[in-house]
């Protein structure tokens, strides 16, 4: 079955359950989750659904493997190249040569990825927001992760923060797996495959679960050495 033949009933985006439902659901799982929810408080996940998929993916690439300040600086320099728009269009980015992109601070790999995102948007591979809303999570992950430089994790972050999807667990995310290890007092964090299987029990609130696991208190360096 291709992306274009996905049955229409599976294309409709899921309604987003209230965040307090996610908190209550997770707290009901077991004593460990109940303690984490009680200590952390209500789920405060705040998606930013105003951006188009194209812009969200370009921004995600800009911040890959960088601290927030560095990502902010690179993005600001990119925007400064196109002062007449709030964000450069796909065609504008395609027309921005490699030297100009590198002057912003983008690596050769990121420059290639961003040009690829722009081309894929113009060709229709990357849908607009309305088109993305009509696709199921896995269909979007399959389509977008085919792009060079865009892995599953990047698409999952896009689904969580731009598309406001409520049931996404980035199973290969270090913070998620380490959070679960600490939550359950394990010696070793689960593998991504094991984490995905464990997380099936948290559906349809896996985004809230990820939010809480990112906030499991980490032991201080002094304590970890003792």
Characteristic key phrases:
226 residues; mainly alpha; Endonuclease Iii, domain 2; Endonuclease III, domain 1; 2 domains; 14 helices; elongated; disordered N terminus; disordered C terminus
Map the helices and strands.
Blueprint: H1 19-27, H2 31-40, H3 53-63, H4 68-80, H5 90-95, H6 98-104, H7 108-123, H8 129-133, H9 137-144, H10 152-161, H11 174-183, H12 192-199, H13 206-213, H14 221-225
Helix pairs in contact: 1-2, 3-7, 3-10, 9-10, 11-13
Descriptive overview:
The protein is elongated and about 55 Å long. The chain is built from 14 helices and no strands. Helix 3 (53-63) crosses helix 10, helix 9 (137-144) packs across helix 10 and helix 11 crosses helix 13 (206-213). It has helices at residues 19-27, 31-40, 53-63, 68-80, 90-95, 98-104, 108-123, 129-133, 137-144, 152-161, 174-183, 192-199, 206-213, 221-225. The protein folds into two domains: 15-46 and 168-219, Orthogonal Bundle (Endonuclease Iii, domain 2); 53-161, Endonuclease III, domain 1, CATH 1.10.340. It starts with 18 loop residues before the first helix and ends with a helix. It has 226 residues and is mainly alpha-helical.
Task: Provide a concise account of the structure shown.
The protein is an all-alpha fold. It contains 14 helices and no strands.
Write down the secondary-structure element order: HHHHHHHHHHHHHH
Q: What is the name of the CATH class of the largest domain?
A: Mainly Alpha
CATH superfamily of the largest domain: Hypothetical protein, domain 2
- Give the tally of β-strands: 0
Poorly predicted runs = 1-14, 222-226
Mean pLDDT metric: 89
């Amino acid at each position: 079955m291709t992306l274009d033949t996905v049955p229409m009933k599976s294309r409709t985006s899921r309604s987003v359950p209230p965040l307090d439902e996610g908190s209550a659901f997770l707290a009901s799982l077991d004593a460990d989750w109940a303690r984490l929810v009680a200590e952390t408080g209500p789920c405060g996940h705040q998606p930013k659904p105003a951006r188009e998929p194209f812009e969200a993916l370009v921004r995600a690439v800009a911040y890959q493997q960088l601290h927030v300040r560095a990502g902010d600086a690179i993005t600001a320099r990119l925007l400064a190249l196109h002062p007449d728009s709030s964000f450069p269009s796909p065609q504008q980015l395609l027309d921005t040569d490699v030297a100009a992109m590198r002057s912003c601070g983008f690596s050769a790999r990121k420059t290639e990825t961003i040009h690829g995102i722009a081309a894929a948007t113009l060709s229709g591979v990357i849908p607009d927001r309305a088109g993305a809303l009509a696709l199921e999570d896995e269909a979007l992950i399959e389509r977008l992760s085919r792009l060079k430089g865009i892995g599953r994790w990047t698409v999952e972050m896009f689904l969580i923060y731009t598309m406001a999807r409520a049931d996404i667990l980035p199973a290969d995310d270090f913070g998620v797996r380490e959070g679960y290890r600490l939550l359950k007092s394990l010696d070793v964090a689960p593998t991504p495959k094991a984490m995905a299987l464990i997380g099936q029990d948290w559906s349809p609130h896996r985004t809230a679960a990820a939010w809480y696991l990112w906030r499991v208190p980490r032991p201080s360096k002094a304590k970890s050495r003792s």
